[in-house]
Amino acid sequence: MSSTFGTLYRVTTFGESHCKGVGAIVDGCPAGLELTEADIQTQLTRRRPGQSTLTTPRDEADQVTIYSGTEFGKTLGTPIMLLVNNKDQRPGDYGEMSKIPRPSHADYTYQMKYGNRASSGGGRSSARESIGRVAAGAIAEKWLKETFGVEIVACVSSVGDIVASEIDPLGLTREQVDATLIRCPDRGLADKMIDRVHQTLEKKDSIGGVVTCVCRNVPVGWGEPVFDKLEAKLAQAMMSLPATKGFEIGSGFSGTCLNGSQHNDVFVQKEGRLGTLTNHSGGVQGGISNGEPILFRVAFKPVATIGLAQETVDFDGHPVTLEAKGRHDPCVVPRAVPIVETMTALALMDLALRQQARG
């Protein structure tokens, strides 16, 4: 099922960018977890459009409603249905695009695959689909925190060629991240990033960036051998997000410049357990968590929908000039931060339940 993620904690998302609503069905959440809409809303509010001058002006409150799976504020162990209504729909903004495949968008591939597509705002390929993931992931975050003390924090570490290389992810908090509009905890570079996004927006263009994520207090032993390695599930989770173009964990591509003697994480005694002196592995060895912080980065491309005129062709191959009228983010990374966090929680919770099932 292409819209379902997970094995024991299974999440199926539904809805298109300009239909009546979007959401998710969550199956496999343990019973007895205290859960209300307020537990989910925080991350949805961080993801919502229209929250600053750096995001799309589409005005959506993204208020979530729990339709099933809870009673008296606690989960029942039965499927949880989560729904967010679309209120600021403008399918008319995309009228002329129904006959033109937007450059680097999914219009052409969806049309060729299905012989049909939702032409308004990209349908399922729109970032609005991520609402269901965020809502389901917020539940997973709460369960992971209460059950194991797991903390998941992401931040913007680069926009274009502006790179915040001095961020210390081990002590990073969401309060530090949310202190700037761009969600970069380096205040000096955050201002430069914000200026760059505003300049890009004035040109009717878009720009990409990188989100860095750290997961703390993950127990040793999560992750399955071979095909369902922890980093493989994280990579799948991240690369399933709209606009992602790269994933690296630990030392990532820079680790290829080191010798084994430099890259190996030597074991030491840490607070009554074995730990590693360095963390080039990013908290994962052999596809299984080793107790160190899990650290990874996700690359997001410039948004495909831009207002700048582009010379392209329509579906019949006739040359056209396209100037997109739909609302779009000039840079997705500020809103991608809670999406990365919650998608990480989905992957980790599923692997945690699989480890618990081993007895």
Radius of gyration: 21 Å
- SS field, number of helical segments: 8
Query: What profile does the largest beta sheet have?
Result: 5 strands, antiparallel
Beta fraction:
15-25%
Q: Give the total of beta strands.
A: 18
What would you call the quaternary organization?
A: single chain
Domains counted in the coordinates: how many?
1
- Give the name of the CATH architecture: 4-Layer Sandwich
The SS-based structural class is alpha+beta
Indicate the overall shape. globular
CATH superfamily (homologous) name: Chorismate synthase AroC
Q: What fold name stands as the CATH topology? A: Chorismate synthase, AroC fold
Q: Level of helix content?
A: 25-40%
The low-pLDDT segments are: none
The ordered string of helix (H) and strand (E) elements is EEEHEEEEHHEEHHEHEHEEEEEEEH
The averaged pLDDT comes out at: 92
